[in-house]
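REQUEST ID: PR-0412
SUBMITTED BY: lab tech R.K.
PRIORITY: routine
TASK: structure prediction, single protein chain
INPUT:
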Amino acid sequence: MNAKERVMSRAQNTTTELPHAFQLAEEPLEPSGLVLAISGELDISTAPGLRERLDAAIDSGLRRLVIDLSGVSFLDSVALAVIVNAKRRLGDQGRMVVVVDRRTYVMLVFECSGLPSVLELADTRDEAVARLDG
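STATUS: complete
OUTPUT:
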């Protein structure tokens, strides 16, 4: 293996083993709800994927949302705007609870942005679902 092949091999391994790769998983939440679990980095390059999914859910008539950020290692202002916009789009007929581990960087960003006074936060997914049911 020559030097160029070694560099390419290392680059390929690096891109396939990203520890903070963005992932979005969804679970239905009956009636008319959805749980979105995000992991990795939620930023300017990945937030559009979340925005598209949230817009599709709201446009389809879903009115109960849980956004689970407990697996998020980093988020920026673009991600915050996507979440706040989803809350705005739900309006008075909908409800959204965001799961945030209070000991993380994500919570620090939420606190610095003043979002705990705007968004309903929960420590766990179970707690978030219970709030939507209650």
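NOTES: Residues 2-19 have pLDDT under 50 and may be disordered.
REVIEWED BY: pending
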